[in-house]
Amino acid sequence: MRHAVRALHSCVLRRLQVQVQLDLPLKASVTPVTRWCRRMFSDEAHATHLDRGEVVARVLDVVKTHPKADPTKVTESASFQDVGLDSLDTVELVMSIEEEFAVAIPDAEADKISSCPEAIEYIASHPSAK
Amino acid sequence: MAASAGEVRHLFRALLREASRFSNYNVREYVKRRAIDAFHQYRDQSDPAVVDAAFKRGLQQLEIARRQSLVYSLYGPRVKSIMDLRSSK
């Protein structure tokens, strides 16, 4: 008897959840089942790359706010050495870029990034940069 | 056994990563700042013995940071520091 009540309880809850989804302002003529399937694949849908202009702006911002960088020399094609950074500062800068875009760059890749265009290229082609 | 430039960068990166794992704002900023200062202090050092000793000290400090980040996470404060809130806005 208790099992039946519990089964009924969970059935009712499941139905209630579907009804909440129906209240969302989604495009018309989509059945509840396909809407639910779309929710499950939402991770793949969001794995798009960031807009290039935004990536450029944010990377240059991170470089400019570095204490040792000369902001007047920061351009989209500048190398980090042009801006006034040495190799240790470059490591620190790449870490700041990692924090800005919430990615984890492996050491082998991070050692290769030594200029603005390389950093922009890496972030723009990273699937889960935010 | 001299540490190569790549290994030094690897150690520096490991220390910075470990710093960002601290839950306490003050300790996090201090570890970052101290790591940057310490590596810049030995940047132009050419004597390999001194460089080796500094590298070994760096490895020890990394182990300490690893242990401490764990301990700090166990006894963290309940309220977030104001500096964390400001930087996230």
TrEMBL record, chain A:
<dbReference type="Pfam" id="PF00550">
    <property type="entry name" value="PP-binding"/>
</dbReference>
<dbReference type="InterPro" id="IPR006162">
    <property type="entry name" value="Ppantetheine_attach_site"/>
</dbReference>
<dbReference type="InterPro" id="IPR009081">
    <property type="entry name" value="PP-bd_ACP"/>
</dbReference>
<keyword id="KW-0276">Fatty acid metabolism</keyword>
<keyword id="KW-0813">Transport</keyword>
<keyword id="KW-0809">Transit peptide</keyword>
<keyword id="KW-0275">Fatty acid biosynthesis</keyword>
<keyword id="KW-0597">Phosphoprotein</keyword>
<dbReference type="InterPro" id="IPR003231">
    <property type="entry name" value="ACP"/>
</dbReference>
<keyword id="KW-0443">Lipid metabolism</keyword>
<dbReference type="InterPro" id="IPR036736">
    <property type="entry name" value="ACP-like_sf"/>
</dbReference>
<protein>
    <recommendedName>
        <fullName>Acyl carrier protein</fullName>
    </recommendedName>
</protein>
<dbReference type="InterPro" id="IPR020806">
    <property type="entry name" value="PKS_PP-bd"/>
</dbReference>
<keyword id="KW-0249">Electron transport</keyword>
<feature type="domain" description="Carrier">
    <location>
        <begin position="53"/>
        <end position="127"/>
    </location>
</feature>
<keyword id="KW-0596">Phosphopantetheine</keyword>
<keyword id="KW-0496">Mitochondrion</keyword>
<comment type="function">
    <text>Carrier of the growing fatty acid chain in fatty acid biosynthesis.</text>
</comment>
<comment type="similarity">
    <text>Belongs to the acyl carrier protein (ACP) family.</text>
</comment>
<keyword id="KW-0444">Lipid biosynthesis</keyword>
From TrEMBL, chain B:
<dbReference type="InterPro" id="IPR045297">
    <property type="entry name" value="Complex1_LYR_LYRM4"/>
</dbReference>
<dbReference type="Pfam" id="PF05347">
    <property type="entry name" value="Complex1_LYR"/>
</dbReference>
<protein>
    <recommendedName>
        <fullName>Complex 1 LYR protein domain-containing protein</fullName>
    </recommendedName>
</protein>
<dbReference type="InterPro" id="IPR008011">
    <property type="entry name" value="Complex1_LYR_dom"/>
</dbReference>
<feature type="domain" description="Complex 1 LYR protein">
    <location>
        <begin position="7"/>
        <end position="63"/>
    </location>
</feature>
